[in-house]
Amino acid sequence: MVQATPFLLVLFLALGAHGLSAKKCSLTGRWVNDLGSNMTLGSVNAKGVFAGTYHTAVTATSNEIKESPLQGSLQKSSNQKGQPTFGFTVNWSFSDSITVFTGQCFVDEDGKEVLRTMWLLRSRVENIKSDWKATR
């Protein structure tokens, strides 16, 4: 019986992990991050294209924050396993800047959908000599 215990544990873990990955992550809907920014994403079409809005809770400008449009693309492939990669661009309505996000949609151990992203923000600068400070 001692020999069977590790095998059963491995088998349980393998079956459990398979069950977690079976739930597909959907980008469509409202998302809120840990800083209070939120975005709403519309449905993803057959080509993986989607649109929505982003309302940031943080800004480096003194301008009034306004909801801003976004456009994106979800990776569509035959081997996609339900936790897709994606990217989108936010064209800020209240500043001379634009941000690109790239990330992946995960289903965590509790079955909750979670987005993990990285971003680059590009601000307009007056000339090429100031280019070094334009991207964050």
Automatic annotation (TrEMBL):
<keyword id="KW-0732">Signal</keyword>
<dbReference type="InterPro" id="IPR036896">
    <property type="entry name" value="Avidin-like_sf"/>
</dbReference>
<comment type="subunit">
    <text>Homotetramer.</text>
</comment>
<dbReference type="GO" id="GO:0005576">
    <property type="term" value="C:extracellular region"/>
</dbReference>
<feature type="signal peptide">
    <location>
        <begin position="1"/>
        <end position="22"/>
    </location>
</feature>
<dbReference type="Pfam" id="PF01382">
    <property type="entry name" value="Avidin"/>
</dbReference>
<dbReference type="InterPro" id="IPR051764">
    <property type="entry name" value="Avidin/Streptavidin-rel"/>
</dbReference>
<protein>
    <recommendedName>
        <fullName>Avidin</fullName>
    </recommendedName>
</protein>
<keyword id="KW-0964">Secreted</keyword>
<dbReference type="GO" id="GO:0009374">
    <property type="term" value="F:biotin binding"/>
</dbReference>
<dbReference type="InterPro" id="IPR005468">
    <property type="entry name" value="Avidin/str"/>
</dbReference>
<comment type="similarity">
    <text>Belongs to the avidin/streptavidin family.</text>
</comment>
<comment type="function">
    <text>Forms a strong non-covalent specific complex with biotin.</text>
</comment>
<keyword id="KW-0325">Glycoprotein</keyword>
<keyword id="KW-1015">Disulfide bond</keyword>
<dbReference type="InterPro" id="IPR005469">
    <property type="entry name" value="Avidin"/>
</dbReference>
<feature type="disulfide bond">
    <location>
        <begin position="25"/>
        <end position="105"/>
    </location>
</feature>
<keyword id="KW-0092">Biotin</keyword>
